[in-house]
Structures are given as structure tokens and as C-alpha cells.
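Subject: design request, 212 residues
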């Protein structure tokens, strides 16, 4: 019987090629991806900064407005005078009430609030007040100390025990306002003679007041 040769003919098989799981990226592809990342980052960072800045300004403005409303309520609740005291140099504000018993004088209530970085008590370059509010665009009148002397570089919105805004003589006043800005927009809280406060916004470049 003839013997069958089962030896594999290795010369007739195609050569095997080893492949890897991934071919990787070329230097050109990596540089292109890096370039796209740099462009996207350059676009996103300024947008994020503007968004954060806008939110900070709006938050500060609403904080000031809430203190004005709080001062009105505290004056009526304690049957005394209450005011929002603003330091225009330090860009801070706090609540004070008039102490009638013991030694009369203004007493700070709570802590001192500081505006965010880049936000100041200012009207930027605007010269026109919100409609039907002030005759001249300006912060509220300066604060007085316990003896009635003017405190420089300050602004105060003062309420009597009926919740009516008053001037330094105790007479009703309807032109009080506090404004904050970051140079791109201006927010303002105005108080009418009846004690009603309104919240305003305008771009800092030109007056275009909108009631918020």
C-alpha cells in the first residue's frame, strides 16, 4: 500500500501578517486636534468669564434690592428708623436701625456685605435716570452719623416707622436710588415716595432702562 504524505506544503501558504489593535495617530493628526482644542478654548473662556461676571453683577444688585426691602420692613416692625448704609469707597453695604432707648444712635444689624470683584456702586457712564424716578441720575444722599453730620463717600436709603423713605431732615423723599455696575451693565433699585421699590437694568454704554 502506498503511504500518503501528509506533510504540509509550506511553500504554497500565504505568509501571515501580524496586525495590532490600533494604528495610532500621526504627528499631523495630533497637531490638528491640538489646534482645534486651542481654538475652542479661546472661544469658551471669554464667554464663561462674561457669563460669570453677569451673574455676579445681577446677584449683587438683587442683594442690594433685598436689603432696601428689609430696611423698610425692619423700620415698621421695630417702630423706628432703618437704613441701608452704603460705603462707596469700599463697595460694601449693611443694614442699620436707629436705637431709641439708652444711648440713641445707629446700630448695625447683621454683617457687612461686599460686592463681587469688578462690581462697584456706580452709574458707569450713564446720565439719564430710569423713567418716572429721579430728576437727576445719582446715588441716594450721603449718610449721617449719630450727631447728624454727613459721612463722606456714603449713600443711604432711610425709612421711617411707616415705611416711608425720608431725607436727612425726616421729610418724605421719592428720589432715593442705589446703582451697581461692572462696566458693561447697570442695575438700580429706586424707591418712590410711597416706599415702593423697583428694580432696573440698562447697558452701561447708553441708557435703555428696563424694569426687571
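Subject: RE: design request

Done. Sequence follows.
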Amino acid at each position: 500500500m502506498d503511504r500518503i504524505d501528509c506533510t504540509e506544503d509550506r511553500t504554497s501558504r500565504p505568509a501571515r501578517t501580524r496586525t495590532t489593535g490600533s494604528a495610532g495617530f500621526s504627528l499631523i493628526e495630533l497637531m490638528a486636534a491640538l489646534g482645534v482644542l486651542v481654538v475652542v478654548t479661546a472661544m469658551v473662556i471669554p464667554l464663561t468669564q462674561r457669563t460669570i461676571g453677569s451673574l455676579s453683577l445681577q446677584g449683587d444688585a438683587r442683594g442690594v434690592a433685598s436689603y432696601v426691602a428689609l430696611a423698610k420692613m425692619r423700620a415698621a416692625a421695630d417702630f423706628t428708623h432703618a437704613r441701608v448704609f452704603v460705603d462707596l469707597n469700599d463697595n460694601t453695604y449693611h443694614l442699620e436701625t436707629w436705637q431709641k432707648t439708652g444711648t440713641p444712635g445707629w446700630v448695625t444689624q447683621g454683617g457687612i456685605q461686599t460686592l463681587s470683584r469688578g462690581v462697584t456702586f456706580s452709574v458707569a457712564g450713564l446720565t439719564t435716570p430710569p423713567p418716572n424716578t429721579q430728576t437727576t441720575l445719582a446715588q441716594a444722599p450721603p449718610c449721617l452719623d449719630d450727631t447728624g453730620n454727613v459721612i463722606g463717600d456714603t449713600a443711604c436709603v432711610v425709612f421711617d416707622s411707616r415705611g416711608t423713605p425720608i431725607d436727612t431732615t425726616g421729610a418724605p423723599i421719592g428720589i432715593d436710588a442705589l446703582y451697581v455696575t461692572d462696566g458693561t451693565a447697570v442695575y438700580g433699585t429706586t424707591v418712590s415716595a410711597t416706599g415702593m421699590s423697583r428694580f432696573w437694568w440698562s447697558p452701561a454704554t447708553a441708557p435703555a432702562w428696563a424694569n426687571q
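The domain at 31-211 is CATH 3.55.40.10 (minor pseudopilin epsh fold).
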